[in-house]
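FIELD: query
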Amino acid sequence: MGKKTTGTRMEREAVKRYLQQYHAAKQKRRILEERRRTLSADLRGPSTPAYRAVPSSRPVHPDGAGAVVFQIAEVEERIAAQQAEMAKAVQNVMDLIDLLPVGSTERTVVEMRHIDCKPWEQIAKAVYMSRSAIFNYYNAALDMLARNEQSGKLLGDCKARNKGPGNGTR
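FIELD: result
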């Protein structure tokens, strides 16, 4: 028993990348939301008094306020699009996880890692196992998915969608 895994390294990496799409979409949404908060803070500017005793000839938000409002609106649109992308990604991940045996530890570990986005320490604590045991179950799940004919179809469909027009990275 010199070799623990039966799936090739490339197949396992392809399965792992497919499973990570929801986490990546979720991270991108966090970045966009942080950008929105930053732009909103820029729009408010430094603590501008609500009441001025003497009218100023200078506008409260010089020149860039309109641009910031436009940027916030654009970020809002991107956040909405990213939420739709997250919904699609989690559905894809769940479709792949459905190929694992229901109630198996392998499935539980993969669900906690790729749907709940939990770190390894929390997964190990939740299932009362060591991290190395969790890694063994995770790798066994990757091997099961790499060998599964249906997962090959899902991975192929995903690869084809990502190579379509307009799906390049920004």
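FIELD: remark
The radius of gyration is 23 Å.
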